[in-house]
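Good morning C.,

I know you're traveling, so I'll keep this short. The sequence:
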Amino acid sequence: MPILHSPSSKRLFGSAHCPPHCKIPAYDCDAYELYPKFRWVYNKLTVAELQGIECEKYIADFVETHLTGYTGMMNVETIGGKIIEAHLRFSPQWPNMYGSWFTSSLVDLYCGKGWTGPLASKIATPVGYSVPLWDDEKYAKTGTTLTDNAFRRLESMFNVESITMQYSREKPLESTPRPSGGFRIAWVNGYDLARCKLARSALQAYLHQLDDTEQWIY
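The tokens, ready to paste straight into the viewer:
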């Protein structure tokens, strides 16, 4: 699969054909392998040190100064005007929120055609939310049993843009980031925060119900 996402997200990328030779990372483990020259961005201390203390137009300046020669998407996380993390990939939960043009423009970029989408200054994208569902990691495996239709029903019921799952059964659970405090099971993405939270609660309840049913059967 040229767009390197989890199988549970496949339905979100069917709007554009991506040739086999064009690899587009959606996860850090893939981006790390694809761009050895720039993998230093995953060192949080290096990212902080390269910015210096006095930094205003920090994101654009950081990219222009330290990432010359890199072509692709970049995901930047900030707190208080400082970059705390940088990722050489896009976020798989966001493409459908940018608009129908995004996936084809993404493929063009990685196929060497440059950025064919609109400039950031001309995109009238409303504020969006990506609400994570944290729970016991056993529900990550339960989530792999959900079908695309099940996701679509939840999305339609709560009028959210998409629901994406973190875990794929093709990879060992131990290879997935697992910070203390819970496992990130899924994201609920949309423009209405309250609806996203309701959908998250419904998804969590559904996963618990499925898990209880499986245990009863066994």
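Safe travels,
E.
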